[in-house]
# Entry
Amino acid sequence: MKNNNKFRGSGIKNCLMKNRKSSINTLASKLLLLALFCFTQSLSIAQVANSSPYSRYGIGDLSGRGFAQGFAMGGTNIALQNDSTPIFFINSGNPASYSNIRLTTAELGQKFDRIKLQSSGAEKIINNASLAYLSLAFPIKKWWGASIGLIPYSSVGYKVSDHQEINNIGGVDFLYEGYGGVNQVYFGNGFKPLFGLPQQFLNSKRFNRLKEEKRFAKNNQILRRKKSLQSLALGLNASYMFGNIDNVRRSVFPFNSSAFNARAGTITRIGDFNFDYGAQYSYGIDSIRGRNLKEKVKLLFGATFSTQTNMNAKIDSLSYTYFINSLGYEVGKDTIQNIQGVKGEIQLPLSYGFGLAIKKGDKWLIAGDFAAQYWSTYKAFNKTQDLKNSLRVSLGTQYVPNSKANGKGNYLKRIYYRAGLRYSQTMLELKNTSLTEYGFSFGLGLPVGRSFLLQNFSLVNIGIEIGNRGTLSNGLIKEQFLRATIGFTINDRWFVKSKFD
# Structure
């Protein structure tokens, strides 16, 4: 019987080890397939996609660092962090959150935009799809976690025209076109510098002395304070920024056969490192005025900061005159300027943000963010663009009836329901008019299978945002947009040896 039990225990061990390897292989294959899909989709569309005529300014339309969960909650992410139970998510918006990762977590996302452009005399609808994010996070120690990923930083995609009548010349069409953008590959770390304070106190002489004096209330008070302090987390993202931005300006004389058209184009190539920092702190409330709460309330605080950064860049500039032949092809005539590989810097501005979240038990989460960036200091090759400082205010909520519900008919209770609002004062002020942006978002987090034995959990996140940017006043363009993000969150336990008695 002893041998049979040994054999049976060995069989269970082998089975679990096979399941563990199978689980890891399954996660890896899912991750690879989804990554290939998102990557090929973004490549196939990147060359033809238009995002907004306003993306011609600065470094383009900023993508933000939030993933699908925060996107559906109005873009909030500064204070959001994981609890001790799955499902875990990655919050690259605040690197301090990596310290709470307990399982290896993979996140992938695809975004879809439908933008309706309106001017005083025309309308146009643009559809666009691209990679939203690709990220992996994993725990290193109980107090230390890390993440690596690929996230778009900005996108440029516009094609606008302006017709003017000029004395002694006639009608001139000024055509502006641009495409490209900047991506970032990041590696981040989050850690808790005060982790272990409660255990140190339990092993201290002071604890034993208070225990001998039967001052248990004092011991508990100190222990609660130590537990609170050890929740402080700090983090850092180191990102390599890279990408090309093409800008072209044409002057076309459609009714003057004696004048040659002109084309001036620049290609800006960016490649350098950027750093952003974060901090988080959580405080749990079990009772109010001596009365125990049915569900624990947790207050979450967050802050982010990024210094002003001078990033290395190169620019190619080519200007020439041309005419259109009888077959409709462009034929160059004279080269006005041809300069290649001019080195310079793009000065990204300082930014900061603060966040607050309130969580009640495992059901309710309410979060709010405030963030600002000093775009008035932006320079590209020592030239300013008269940009303004920007700010963003957002508010979001999440509700899950019962994330641990089991059995048939309980699936709706396990769904994460999300909604949010946001308002932005953008960096643009055109024709003495400040451009603002606002949006309303909502979404779902749909659990897909789970295994508590192997600690394998998955979630499909769907987020939709409806909003406006710009105005029809003063001859400007108004954008009405519908943005959707679908993301995949996969949790699994890696790098841990199974233990058996």
Notes: Residues 2-195+230-492 form a domain with the Porin fold (CATH 2.40.160.60). The longest helix spans residues 2-46. The first strand starts at residue 61 and ends at 62.
